[in-house]
Amino acid sequence: MKVFVAIKRVIDYNVKVRVKADNSDVDLTNVKMAVNPFCEIAIEEAVRLKESGQATEVVAVAVGPSQCQEQLRTALALGADRAILVETDGFPQPLSVAKLLKGVYDQEQPGLVIFGKQSIDADNNQTGQMFAALAGLGQGTFASKVEIAGDTVNVTREVDGGLQTVALKAPAVVTTDLRLNEPRYASLPNIMKAKKKPLDTLTPEALGVEVKATIETLRVEPPAERQGGIKVDSVEALVDKLKNEAKVI
Amino acid sequence: MSILLVAEHNDAALNPVTLNVLAAAQAIGGDITVLVAGEGCGAAAEAAAALPGVSKVLCADAAVYGKQLAENVAPLIAEAAAGHSHVLSAHSTNGKNTMPRVAALLDVNMVSDIISVESEDTFKRPFYAGNAIATVKSSDAVKVVTVRHTAFDPAPATGGSAAVEALGSAHDAGVSSFVNEEIVKLDRPELTAARVVVSGGRGMGSGENFKILEGVADKLNAAMGASRAAVDAGFVPNDMQVGQTGKIVAPELYIAVGISGAIQHLAGMKDSKVIVAINKDEDAPIFQVADYGLVADLFQAVPELESQI
Description:
The structure holds 2 protein chains of 2 kinds.
Chain A: E1 2-7, E2 9-11, E3 33-35, H1 37-51, E4 57-64, H2 68-77, E5 82-87, H3 94-108, E6 112-116, H4 127-135, E7 138-149, E8 152-159, E9 162-169, E10 172-176, H5 188-194, E11 199-202, H6 204-207, E12 215-221, E13 230-232, H7 235-245
Parallel strand pairs in A: 1-4, 1-6, 4-5, 5-11, 6-10, 7-10
Antiparallel strand pairs in A: 2-3, 7-8, 8-9
Chain B: E1 2-6, H1 17-28, E2 31-38, H2 42-49, E3 56-61, H3 70-80, E4 86-90, H4 93-105, E5 110-114, E6 116-119, E7 122-127, E8 132-138, E9 143-147, E10 163-166, E11 176-183, E12 196-200, H5 211-220, E13 223-226, H6 228-232, E14 253-257, H7 263-269, E15 274-279, E16 292-295, H8 298-308
Parallel strand pairs in B: 1-2, 1-4, 2-3, 3-10, 4-9, 5-9, 12-13, 12-14, 14-15, 15-16
Antiparallel strand pairs in B: 6-7, 7-8
């Protein structure tokens, strides 16, 4: 089974995000970029499926500007066999990303498509589900366990209040949650080898997809600051404050 | 305007977050129809009919909608969305699972996790793990929106008397089926609905050590939460995670124990009315948002707290 992994280039999760002075967006000038952490989990899951003999090939796919090649190389260093960049101006909105990925999916016909559940920049949590709808596939979102049994993909999902397991008919879509696995680090020899792995570039035109933006960002601002309070010096003082000042216990 | 509100429920009853979504719908304004899809969901539909300001309840009661599988429910919602200007649901695991599918079937983008309604087409939503708030305007013909429930005060649960209309259509995509679920039987209130939440972080040191929080939680009838660091470290299950990628809570009292206060955690709890932080690191960022901070070894302070409340 061929496995697709959709990955996104985002701000590195260690970077402190700042809003631009003109409130037009967050400031990404000279900021370190990385593979979205949930997408790293997706890559790891795909590579493990290959290592256990359940996947035959792992293809990493990204949608975005040419700089996304860096993140695709990271995916290759982590064990993906080849990569495809659908090159666009900037990062399209989720519906367009889903349509572009559907275009690549139609050409490649993978048996499993793995996404991160959300990107840590836009925080939408939409693209995997939108892709699944467009491709008419079953989806196992927020996965903490994936098991392939013949033509069935069993996915255990993190849902409000506990876990739910669904059985999906392959081909199927999985979106990863935190506990699915712990991603590995790329070794130096693998980083070198990744430079020679194939990375193809496609355009929206070649896929017959019109990239459209229907959500306009009018303003970006920092969140309202919460005023810090006081420090108390003992548990006794804390309990007194909670009882007599805040009156919450 | 005409809003289709997708109810959050377990067939027997409405989940209280539906009342917060209703408040968001009322902030948009216009006619409100509630859709209840499930298997044996008549009781939930009756409860929806009693919501104030609801003009109609659509009840799709069929085996294919049992466990509300997104593959089957999304085409139903997309069909029911005809003639509506908005489709709203909670930004719950259910809403997150289903609504993007609905948006794709309607060929529109979606606005996730709104925290305010600025106008019928303009909303505020947090992104970058809560480090920034965007005001976004949708030009789509149908606005598909999920609502952060803690950002809207709940509407009353009663006062209305809408008619319940049965929907006959049964969509079976045939690509997914429910296998089983392990819903943790809670002796405590549910995390997102609790009046008091007691959360532990990496400072707890182990999953075993979370037991010392239970005594405090028992006495305060609190739900228990955790930071992402504690989940990542494998101390506790992910459904306890409070934060931008976990659950968003806004209780009257939030007690953060051994939690440093990473922005992604703060994004999930900073709307709590009163925040208490117990941490031995006096420079921990959590103290910058806490109303009451106690710099102390949690293994001494927590048992002491339990005995004094």
